[in-house]
Amino acid sequence: MVSDVHRTLFKGGVFLYPPTDRDPGGKLRLLYEANPIAYIVEQAGGRATDGERRILDIQPEHIHQRTPLALGGRAEMEEFDKVRGGVGEPARR
């Protein structure tokens, strides 16, 4: 994940690790995968979300809690939100 996010920050785009039917709560662990990388991305001027809220605003309920993740530069994430239907809203087709 680190090398993919590094490339995303330098070349643009959106890094996406969405929920799946098998893992509706996501696969990345909030406390030691999603939060550290979200902090770095936000310090670089980007955004990180689980599709509904900012990753760094999620209050962990247990140490191994998992979460979906979408992150990228501010402009790319704004486009992602438009395509997806907006943060917190279901995608419109």
What secondary-structure arrangement, pairings included, does this model have?
Layout (H helix, E strand, L loop, with lengths): L1 H10 L2 E4 L10 E2 H14 L2 E4 L16 E2 L1 E5 H11 L9
Antiparallel strand pairs: 1-5, 2-4, 3-5
Compose a concise summary of this entry.
With 93 residues, the protein is α+β, with helices and mostly antiparallel strands.
Give an overview in words.
The protein has 93 residues and is α+β, with helices and mostly antiparallel strands. It has one domain (2-84): D-Maltodextrin-Binding Protein, domain 2 (3-Layer(aba) Sandwich), CATH 3.40.190.80. The protein has helices spanning 2-11, 30-43, 74-84, and strands at 14-17, 28-29, 46-49, 66-67, 69-73. The protein has a three-stranded antiparallel beta sheet, with helices on both faces. A two-stranded antiparallel ribbon has the order 2-4. The protein starts with a helix and ends in a 9-residue tail after the last helix.
